[in-house]
From TrEMBL:
PANTHER family (UniProt xref): N-ACETYLGLUCOSAMINE-6-SULFATASE FAMILY MEMBER (PTHR43108), SD21168P (PTHR43108:SF8)
GO terms for MF: hydrolase activity; transferase activity
InterPro entries registered for this protein in UniProt: Alkaline_phosphatase_core_sf, Sulfatase_N, TAT_signal
Disordered: annotated span: 1-34
Protein name: Sulfatase-like hydrolase/transferase
Sequence ranges of Low complexity compositional bias: 19-34
Pfam family, one: Sulfatase
Ranges where the Sulfatase N-terminal domain occurs: 69-379
Amino acid sequence: MSQQATPQPRPGVDDRAAAGDLAPGDDPARGGLSRRGFIAGTAAAASLGALAGAANAPNAVARARDARPNVLLIVTDDQPKRTEWAIPRTVDWLAGRGVRYTNGHVTTPLCSPSRSSVLSGRYAHHHGVRNNQASYQLDQSTTIQRHLAEAGYRTGLFGKFLNAWQLADNPPHFEEFALLSPGYVDARWNVNGAVQQLPGYTTTIIREETLRFIERSTSDDRPWFAYVTPYAPHGPNTPEPDYAEVPVPAWNGRPSVPEEDRSDKPPYIQNATGTLADGRRIRRNQLRTLLSVDDTVEAFRQKLAELGQLENTLVIYIADNGFSWGDHGWTKKSVPYRQAHEVPFYASWPAGGLGGGRRDDRIVANIDIAPTVLDAAGVVPDHEQDGISLLSDRSRDHLLVEWWKQGDGAAGPRTWASYVAKDRQYTEYYALTTNADGEVSGGGEVTFREYYDLVNDQHQLTNALHQADEEDEANLGIAELAAQLAADRAG
């Protein structure tokens, strides 16, 4: 493991941002790019980018034979928003010089369903991975890696793949891989087909394996796709030894931590026991593990600059879901509240128009990643996708977010689906469950409903449907929202 000094205050992010007070951008400009601006297939533009990179890196190999961009997709585990203090260099590069998506979401706030949506561009009710045990239900022919591999890309996976995926099973359509059995220290891996234990901190191992993969582009002219998935900041949030005692900025919670009166919330939230102290502990440990992620992303940036590939590499950074720091008494994910489904989301591709430190305020989601990557690579998928390419100017006025309860146990949230817009959120809970294969059973009756005015109640403290009458519901447009939600779930 590389040795590092105890970090000094990091440039670009202050305590105000770390405390969760970083204001969203007011710039309405979107980071979209029309198809005519794509770099894919434009050899002359790619050659100029390669030459510019080579001028800054005399020893770099300027690849002009294939104009398509490299793709570096980074997916962290359980990282909520308001964690930028720990990743300032990542934010400086990908948001400060690329595009920050201020309304980034996941469509199912649970690891395996979300990752399956990242790789396929599909909702969980389409790809079938409705819970963490159902990972083998994902049709691997629908994935980014399959399409890029068949299009001539060199593909690599470094880190976690899907929950419940057997370590001995090689991940399909990846030419090279270091597949992690989730853990932080001295974990088990499948490295290109050889299952073994590797000593050291897993984020560091992921960094070194990815850097070797990128370095091989000096002798291989194919564009590459690297899917990089550190375990951080997932529990138990074990930091790298050098960061184990690093002080983090103080945090006094937010109005939803804890929410004193939860009588308008569903029973599992009324019974939740998370406290401000719990939230502070989770936040502290998550931030410490993310410091190593920031080191890793910075190493990628330096390597790309060294090789002259910084301009023509599409880099996307997202979390597979958010996490609650005691909001409404909840200290997990899997709920229809903002802390669970809103995530950090950044992208950079200077040669393709994703640059300049812009803020894109469209409602975007993990299902948009696969369409964006394939669009940039000039690949037309042979299956339907639910997401949109962020390289276009397309937008949506709302998003479907959904989650399924596995099994018949009484604890935890029931199956739910939610209509999420910028100004409001409407949620229904259902009498439905899934088995380990993600198959759904139950009558489907609506058992509880929530509506939040996100303009005047951003912390979701007041469920407007609690004790609402018919006139109240009519004024809120609940019938129309319920009809739209039903159509989204069936679509």
